[in-house]
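input
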Amino acid sequence: MKNFDLVLRFLVPAYDAVYNIIRHPGLLKKNSFIAEIFYRYIPTTLFFVWFFSLVPYEVGTIIYAILMLFGAYRVHMLSKKNSKNLNTLYYLIVLYIGFFGIRAFIGHTFFRDWVAESIGWEIGSPFQIELAFYHLGLAVSAFIFMWKKSTDLALGLVVSKSIFWFGAFGVHVYELISNGNISANNIGPWIIYMDLIIPVLLIWFLIKAREESRLN
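output
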């Protein structure tokens, strides 16, 4: 599995960050780690999301999603017995609320017309920029969670983001039924994965991590 870890560390930046923190907790105290988030982890996240999106028929998206779930499995297996669920939750929050929150912020601001068209929205709405800052706020909170690994902070992050994801999925389904909106970013595999599967996983590991913390 060491070779597969190298693949995950290269392709899934949040996995690399969490992997290093589990192995070397002292990294969190170094300013160089903060810099690395901005000059390495975030740019490579954006690059690989774009790279896999070039594979047609959403196949690349599915492959990337599977790699990220393998990352969760490996974090779970790397962790000690009394921190498996918390570290897996840690990885999921940093990846999906943190890194992908930054991606959503950039998409809804600098590429907002392209994103709007990919969802089937009208372009030019200022509400899209408001949505971008919502994602940015939770992303910053998720990065703070890297230093303040608290199940209470995790509770707030998971509940707020999960309500958004479930609500967004409901809107996507309504758009599909009412307006026949079959745009890739309205009801494609990525939307089902992000708006349904990920919040369920987050809630599951949050419950398990809180149970774990009460036992210790």
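quick obs: The mean pLDDT is 92.
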